[in-house]
Amino acid sequence: MDISDNPILKEYKEKLPLFHDQERILKQELTAAFERAGLHVAAVESRVKAYESLEGKLRLKGYKYSSLADITDILGIRVITYYVDDVDRVASLVERLFTVDWENSVDKRKLLEIDSFGYLSLHYICSTPSFPYRFEVQMRTLLQHAWANMDHDTGYKSGVEIPSRYLRSMSRMAGLLELVDEEFSKIHVELADYRRRVQSLVASGNLADVPLDGDSFRSYLELKPFEALNKRIAKMNQAEIQDVPLSQYLAVFKGLGCQSLGDIADIVKDYSEAAFQIACYQIGLTDLDIIASSLGPQDLCIAYVLKKGGGRVGLKYLFDLINGQSESNGTIADMLLEQASSLPFMNQ
After folding, report:
1. What is the per-residue pLDDT across 33-72, written as a single tens digit (0 to 9) for each?
2. Can you identify the CATH homologous superfamily of domain 7-156?
3. For residue 88, which phi and psi values (nearest 5 degrees)?
4. Cβ-contact 293, 243 below 8 angstroms
5. Each residue of 134-185: pLDDT tens digit?
6. CB-based burial of residue 80 (10 Å sphere; 0-12 exposed, 13-18 middle, 19+ buried)?
7. Of 106, 46, 54, 98, nearest in space to 76 by CA
8. Second label for 332, Cα 20 to 30 Å away, from 97, 126, 250, 279?
9. SS3 letters for the chain?
């Protein structure tokens, strides 16, 4: 049947530039909304249905449509999230941005079939006052999206194109992926709760109760624990303090045996005077007018190693942690050990 004269196809050709303009606008609106909400998604994809695809749809189901406005998927947006829970967050934002046609929208996540994993998208049919046609917004996780693409490539969903023994294997994999998707989301939620607890403990000063890890150390650095020592050191030369990243000192403090933030706080408390003496020897007779914010924690660690009797081996190990393993760190350790022997804290 020749449908080339179908008025829907003619309208489609006329309105195609409008659909492409709206595609760009919708992607920008969604992306901006996600940024404002602090919601990180894997991707925002879009497409305008190709002429051949629309022609095929009309050949199969043309009796259902009297105009282009009756077809709700000419313009489609797909939002791909990292986590299952984020699908609902995306949906909430979409509901606020656009008018949702609830009667024609579908939550395919309620499907229970074992082979439905890659199709568990949330599909909203939406409209906006500035655009005369409805459009579709699909929301799914990254794993669901990956599976749907592989599924499409293998013909799994048809249940006909591949032998049943392969269908069974793929059904098992679909179940495993669904479990992985749920576990990733569970871990994501639990990690967020853990970080909130850590931040609360750090803010309350209960540092001994906080295990030392990447999250807790970042929260600790927000308290600027080395600032007082750095300011005291800088004052010697009226120097400026240049902020540098201190995240590398997580491995350093762990290497020194610290297991909690309380252990680091004890080092700051007990070794700041010794660290200041080391800094005086290092820069007191120089005209250095800029110091890095890493000088304080570095000298604290040096003081700790020296006072604990770590000697050359301990200092070499420390500088390997700070600078990366190198034979030159042994030379630095020798020089520092000789210089530090005359400092007051070493003779107490």
Report:
1. 999 999 999 999 999 999 999 999 998 887 889 999 999 9
2. Beta Polymerase, domain 2 (3.30.460.10)
3. -70, -35
4. yes
5. 999 999 999 888 887 776 655 544 445 666 676 677 777 777 888 888 899 8
6. buried
7. 46
8. 250
9. CCCCCCHHHHHHHHHHHHHHHHHHHHHHHHHHHHHHHCCCCCEEEEEECCHHHHHHHHHHHHHHCCCHHHCCCCEEEEEEECCHHHHHHHHHHHHHHCEECCCCCEEHHHCCCCCCHHHCCEEEEEEECCEEEEEEEEEEEHHHHHHHHHHHHHCHHHCCCCCHHHHHHHHHHHHHHHHHHHHHHHHHHHHHHHHHHHHHHHHHCCHHHCECCHHHHHHHHCCCCCHHHHHHHHHCCCCEEECCCCCCHHHHHHHCCCCEHHHHHHHHHHHHHHHHHHHHHHHCCCCCCEEECCHHHHHHHHHHHHHCCCHHHHHHHHHHHHHCCCCHHHHHHHHHHHHHCCCHHHHC
Strand pairing class (43-48; 122-128): unpaired
Cα 55 to Cα 1, 10, 181: the distances in Å are 11, 11, 36
Tokens of 223: 């308290």
- Which two three-digit tokens encode residue 105? 């929208």
Residue type at 156?
Y
The pLDDT score that the predictor gives to residue 40 is 95
Q: What is the pTM of this model?
A: 0.67
| Tens digits of residue pLDDT in 271-282 | 999 999 999 888
* Region 8-23 average pLDDT: 96
Mean pLDDT across 301-309: 94
Place of tokens 């020749």: 2
Pairing of strands 122-128, 99-100: antiparallel
Answer left, alpha or beta for residue 331, where phi above 0 means left and psi between -120 and 50 means alpha: alpha
Look up residue 346 and give its amino acid. M
**Token duo for residue 254:** 């762990």
Q: How far apart are CA 228 and CA 213, in angstroms?
A: 23
Residue carrying the six token digits 């043309």: 62
Q: What are the start and end residues of each CATH 3.30.460.10 domain in the chain?
A: 7-156
Tokens 């022609």 -> residue = 55
